[in-house]
Structures are given as C-alpha cells and as structure tokens.
C-alpha cells in the first residue's frame, strides 16, 4: 500500500468541512439586521446613524471571518495537488504493467504457434517425400505387373489356339470314324428302322380308314378246323433273360408295371437298388425299347447329357435287381476317371447305394478298358452271375468281345449333334 494514498481521505474531509463553514459565513442569518431593516422606516435619523454604524461593524466582522477561510482553502488545495499527482502516476504505472504482460503473453503465443506451424510443415514435407517415393515404386511395380500379365495372356492365347486346332482335328476324325464304327452304323440303322416304322404306321392307318368306308359283309363259310400239332416251346437256357419272347408274359408284365410305377409313383426314399428319381415318359420309352424291342442287348441314342443316360441305366439296373436280385452285376465302361466318377455319383444318387456297393466283388464295377470288362464278364457268367455291361457314349470304339454277353446297354451319340466330351473337363 502507498502511505500517501492511505492519508488522502483525511485532508479531503477537512476541506469539505471548511467549505461548509465558509458557505455559512458568506450567507449569515443575522436577526438584528433583519429587525433593523424592518424598523428602519419607523425610527428617526438617530436611529439611522446607529444603524449605519451597526452595518459597518457587521461588515468588518464578516470580512475578518472570510479572510481566514480563504487562506485555509488555499492551503488544503496545495496539499491535495501532490496526492492527486501521486495517484495518477500509480494508475499509469499499473496500466503500463498490464499492457506489458498482455503483450508478452501474446508474443509467447505467437512464437509457440510459429514453432508448431514449422514442425507441421516439416512433417508434411517428410510425408510428401515418402508418398512420392512410394508412388514411384508403385508405378514401377505396376508397369512390371502389366508387362508380365500381357506375356502370360499371350502365352495362354497361343495355348488356347493350339488346343482349339487340336479339338477341331479330333472332332473331324471322330465324325469320320462314326461312319464306320459300330455305334455309327447302329445309329444309322435305328434311324432307318424308325422311318420305316412311321411309314408302316401311316399306311396301316390309311388302310384301316379305307376298310371302314367299304362296309362289306363277307359270306359265312364254314371252314374245316385244321389239325394243329402241339409244339413244345423251346426251353430257354437258365440264367439268360429273353424279354422279347412271347412265353415270358409274366416277366413282361412285371417290367411294364415297374416302369409305370417309376413314372407315375416315384419313391424318393425307397430301399437301395430302387429308382429314386423322377422318370419321364421319354425315359420310360427308351427303357421299354431296350427291354422289349432289343431284348436287353442293344444301343440307345444318347439323351444329350450323361446324367440323363445314367437315369435310364439306373432304371434298367433297378428292374433287373427286382427280377434277379444279387445275381445282377453292373459293369460300367468309360475311357476317363472323370467320367467314371460321374457314373459313380449318378448311380449313388439314382439308386440310393453307397461306396460299399462299388468294388471288384460288389454290385457295380467301373472300368476304363473294354478288355478288362470282357474278362470280368466272362468270369461272372461262369460263376452263374448276370453281368450287365453299360457303355458310355464317349467310347469311340466298342470291342466285339462285349457283344457276346446276354445283357449290354450302349449309349450312342447323336450324329447330328456330335460333341466333344473333353470340353466338360
């Protein structure tokens, strides 16, 4: 604390008191003067003289009183001036110190901001250099990758062109061989027979319509009954099924009943070796043709899909198992392991059998060579078994040794839509 500032209120209070006293002296309320003024018109001249002397005395007293008051006011003002100057200087010093502190703080903030900006600029420059280096490396690696990819694509293109040329040559060779092989000849013969059958059907229908229009009543002529000699039917060899002969009516009815059951009432959860898939009329027609027209030994035109062929073969296997039980042994011939794998999966799916049913001494055996199939079938015949040989439509040639067995089913490719099965793998 400033000692001068602490002593300032006392002189100010004294000065205010003196001012009040001075105002009281300058404007006194003298009752004697008022009374004299009121009684002036009434008194005599003597009284006027005494009144004048009284006024002069009063004025002298007032003057004597005012002079010391003015002198005291001057002294108090002289005392206040240094104190006021001291207060002003202290106020200016405090304001200057506050401005100085604020300025220093502002400068410190600006310096810290400048340092932070410099550090951030340095970091950004370092990041820019790193990113630029990474960009150059990426561009270099990308260029190398593009070059390598182009080289690989060119190599693959050349390899594909070579493969296409090979496949085209193979397709042409297969078409030429189809004209001379058994499959091609049998397919051509089947087409001709079907055309002749259609011709006969149409001719018979026309003949029947013409006969109905004639309305002839033939004369009744009694004929002598010819002597009919009873001919004993030739007994079939045991173990060789002959579905096309007339004496096997019971077997024929059973086969037709099973085909109708597969077509109209499929059992998707039936026992093993029973067909578990939907059987369409086209499939039933193919199976009936193989049983009754070809006698269980012949070629059928492919359905265009190996899965459809497997469905037809599964129906034949199921019917034979229903008729002959475990005596039937299925031998599948295909020229690649991939196609044999398709046959295995398809038979499992259609007949509800598993892996234990596949094997050399099991229900289904898979082969890649026709010689092995012939040897296995010969051993089965000697063991009083019924080998059913199924030949995939990818076989280009069929060994004649396979045609000697009682049951065989070959799928012949359609000459109009010859396709290369190598495209499937």
In brief:
The chain is an alpha/beta fold and 425 residues long. It has 10 helices and 5 strands, in the order αααααααβαβαβαββ.
Descriptive labels:
425 residues, alpha/beta, Rossmann fold, 5-stranded parallel sheet, 10 helices, 5 strands, disordered C terminus
CATH topology of one domain: Rossmann fold
Strand content: 5-15%
CATH architecture of one domain: 3-Layer(aba) Sandwich
Number of strands: 5
Approximately how much helix is present in the residues?
55-70%
Biggest sheet: strand arrangement: 1-5-4-2-3
Radius of gyration: 68 Å
Low-confidence regions: 1-10, 24-47, 65-70, 224-238, 420-425
CATH class of one domain: Alpha Beta
Structural class: alpha/beta
What is the distance, rounded to the nearest whole angstrom, between the alpha carbons of the first and last residues? 107 Å
Largest sheet: 5 strands, parallel
Tell me, rounded to a whole number, the average pLDDT.
75
Inertia-based shape: elongated
Question: Secondary-structure blueprint of this entry?
Answer:
Blueprint: H1 3-6, H2 9-26, H3 31-39, H4 45-178, H5 182-214, H6 249-264, H7 281-293, E1 297-301, H8 306-324, E2 328-333, H9 337-351, E3 364-367, H10 370-382, E4 386-391, E5 407-412
Parallel strand pairs: 1-5, 2-3, 2-4, 4-5
Biased composition (Polar residues): 18-33, 51-80
InterPro entries: DUF3086
Keywords: Coiled coil
């Amino acid at each position: 604390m400033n000692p001068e500032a602490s002593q300032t209120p006392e002189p100010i209070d004294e000065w205010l008191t003196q001012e009040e006293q001075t105002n009281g002296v300058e404007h006194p309320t003298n009752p004697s003067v008022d009374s004299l003024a009121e009684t002036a018109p009434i008194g005599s001249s003597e009284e006027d003289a005494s009144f004048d002397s009284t006024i002069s005395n009063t004025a002298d007293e007032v003057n004597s009183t005012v002079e010391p008051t003015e002198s005291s006011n001057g002294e108090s003002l002289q005392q206040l001036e240094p104190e006021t100057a001291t207060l002003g200087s202290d106020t200016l010093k405090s304001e200057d110190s506050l401005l100085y502190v604020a300025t220093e703080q502002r400068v410190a903030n600006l310096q810290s901001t400048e340092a932070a900006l410099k550090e951030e600029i340095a970091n950004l420059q370092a990041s820019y250099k790193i990113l630029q280096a990474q960009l150059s490396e990426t561009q270099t690696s990308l260029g190398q990758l593009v070059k390598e990819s182009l080289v690989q694509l060119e190599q693959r293109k050349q390899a594909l062109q070579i493969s296409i040329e090979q496949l085209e040559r193979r397709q042409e060779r297969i078409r030429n061989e189809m004209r001379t092989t058994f499959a091609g000849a049998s397919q051509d013969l089947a087409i001709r027979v079907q055309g002749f059958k259609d011709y006969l059907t149409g001719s018979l229908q026309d003949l029947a319509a013409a006969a109905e229009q004639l309305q002839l009543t033939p004369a009744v002529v009694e004929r002598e009954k010819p002597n009919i000699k009873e001919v004993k039917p030739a007994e079939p060899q045991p173990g060789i099924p002959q579905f096309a002969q007339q004496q096997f009516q019971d077997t024929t009815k059973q086969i037709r009943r099973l085909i109708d059951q597969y077509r109209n009432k499929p059992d998707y959860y039936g026992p093993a070796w029973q067909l578990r898939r939907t059987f369409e009329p086209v499939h039933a027609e193919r199976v009936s043709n193989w049983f009754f027209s070809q006698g269980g030994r012949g070629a059928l035109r492919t359905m265009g899909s190996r899965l459809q062929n497997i469905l037809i073969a599964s129906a034949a296997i199921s019917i034979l198992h229903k008729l002959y039980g475990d005596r039937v042994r299925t031998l599948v011939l295909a020229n690649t392991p991939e196609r044999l794998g398709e046959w295995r999966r398809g038979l499992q799916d259609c007949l509800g059998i598993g892996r234990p049913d596949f094997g050399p001494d099991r229900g289904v055996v898979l082969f890649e060579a026709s010689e092995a199939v012939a040897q296995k079938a010969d051993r089965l015949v000697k063991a009083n078994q019924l080998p059913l040989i199924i030949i995939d439509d990818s076989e280009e040639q069929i060994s004649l040794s396979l045609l000697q067995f009682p049951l065989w089913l070959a799928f012949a490719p359609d000459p109009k839509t010859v396709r290369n099965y190598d495209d499937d793998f």
